[in-house]
Amino acid sequence: MHFMSALRYNPKTQRNEWYYRIKESFRDLTGRVRSRIMLNVGFIEEAHSPEDIRDIGKCLNYLHEHQGERDLFGCPFADYNEFVRSKAEEFWTAMVKNGSIDAVKSAKEESRKKAERLVDVNTVKHTDARDVGAEWICLQTIRELEIDRFLERQGWNEIQINTTLAHLITRTVYTPSELKSIRIMNENSAVCELVSGNQEWHPGYHDIYKVAPNLYGLKDKLETHLCRKTDDLFNLTNRIVLFDLTNFYFEGRKERSAKAQYGRSKEKRNDCKLLVMALCVNAEGFIRYSSILAGNTADPDSLPDMIDTLSQKTRTPSDPERKVLVCLDAGIATEDNLRKIKEKGYDYLCVSRTRLTDYEISEGCQSVKVLDTRKQEITLRQVKHEADGDYYLEINSPAKAVKESSMNRQWRERFEQELTKARDALGRKGGKKTYEKVIERVGRAIQKYPSIAKYYVIDYYRDESNPKNMADIQWRIAVPENVDRQSGIYFLRTNVESLDEKSTWDYYNLIREIECTNRQLKTDLNLRPIYHKKDDCSDAHLFLGLLSYWIVNAIRYKLKQTGENCFWTEIVRRMSTQKAITTEGVNALGEQVCLRLCSEPSKAAEDIYERLRYKKMPFRKYRFQKVCSTQKGKRKM
After folding, report:
1. CB atoms inside a 10 Å sphere around CB 257
2. Angle, nearest 10°, between helix axes 82-98 and 100-117?
3. Average pLDDT, stretch 318-341?
4. Which of 255, 258, 328 has the alpha carbon at shortest distance from 293?
5. Is residue 326 classed as helix, strand or coil in its secondary structure?
6. What are the angstrom distances between the C-alpha of 468 and each of 425, 441, 474?
7. Phi, psi dihedral angles at 72 (to 5 degrees)
8. Winning range, highest mean pLDDT, from 356-365, 463-472, 512-521
9. DSSP 3-state helix, strand, coil percentages of the chain (rounded to 5)?
10. What is the rounded distance in angstroms from the CA atom of residue 177 to the CA atom of residue 189?
11. What is the tens place of the pLDDT at every residue in 167-196?
12. Residue 268 region, left (φ>0) first, then alpha (ψ -120 to 50), else beta?
């Protein structure tokens, strides 16, 4: 501290006298020289000398430097005169009272904060950039579904839960194997940092491989928890449920597997062994029941267990007149299965397994015109109801008729080619001519093309000179009009009397929701092919994929409520623009500044955050570390 003086007119004495201010100059931590008026002393009326003013400044500096300290060796101002001591005490008390002493301290602290953030641009570098956008919305969805709390109630510790969540999110976003999942966590994704809050934490190799089996051990409890949570979270009524089967093929021989069997692959991979997955899904796409069956399981055989489990995991309407409506495909809708559905107190709606031939349209019934997903017109007509029978709806689709007519034409050409080959062989050397062998050959063609062969009449002629041989084969279509007479026509069947034509059609079209589920499981979440060799590992692999689907469907359902219908792969693409990155540099204090930040989401990603009502920024971290002189020298070099 020091005094500043200037000559001013003193109205009291009516002459020019010295006007005093106490001022402090200091250099802040950013290197700037700053000054501050501590006290306006004004005119000093007592007689004094310039040396007295100097000594008062020395006393004030001493008090400022040793404030709060006790003097052990007497008064430090004993060598000064009474005027200096009294004025130093007066001025110090005034500065403490008006807060100017503390103001200087706060100014220095403020300069420290600025100096900490004043980083030399020549020392800045960016490291450890990782994807964070898709992982962040998955983690917020998991917490919304309370999967972490469920695992905690099951007695899992924090490390187990963090490992499970990290692997589940990685499986949902990147659809990798366990080994590739570890590499993604270590090198590409910030998922471990999100779930644990520690940038350095990564799960162990063996812990990742234990996640899927451990979760599969809680399959029934976890599915029940998710069913109830989604019902409460989204206020689902489960008025309509959908049943269907799909299958997944294996890579490998699976010689010792009890479940992996050859069957009819829906992906035309009949050369591979299969696993069958039975699913029960509500109209919103949430799974009510899942079961993993042997690869040769027929569609109708899977329904009884699904019906028995449905009531345990589904909150059904309390009104007895509003029964749950079960929609299922024709492959499952056998008479026995429909009877079991009815016995459990459910209604059903399905495609009739057989085409009605002798039927009449209801009297006074008007045709209803609707459009399919491709905006093509379809005609609906109600079939006349018979007592104690189900209700049928005739569906006439011109687009389907064109497709079936084209298929019939193709089968007819192929069937006649087989017949032509059999007839040409009769006159060719080495060809099959024996009567019984020729009939067997024609029989195999009929077995290969049964849908078109039933319209043909085939005549066989023995060789008169050699009755053991066939002389000729002739064929014709008995009634050509019958081939395409019912093309494009099929029937919906239900036991609900109150459904009109439009409602029946709309309810049945919800079956596409389970087809969308199967597509997401196989394509978006990449559940096939399966490489595991043990049945338990294969089941756990599929169940982990189902948990990923729960997360994906919860996100997509919330987006659909706001008018956004994009698929999961598109959501991941939009969210992949948000990154977590570490920025390092040296500040004005010589400290190493480390900032762990997330980039601002793009407009497309921000739109998804707003629709989901999720937080946009998962974290923002700072760390300051002092750098020694040797490190500074190396950095300058």
Report:
1. 19
2. 60
3. 80
4. 258
5. strand
6. 15, 16, 18
7. -90, -15
8. 463-472
9. 45, 25, 35
10. 15
11. 999 999 998 888 999 999 999 999 999 999
12. left
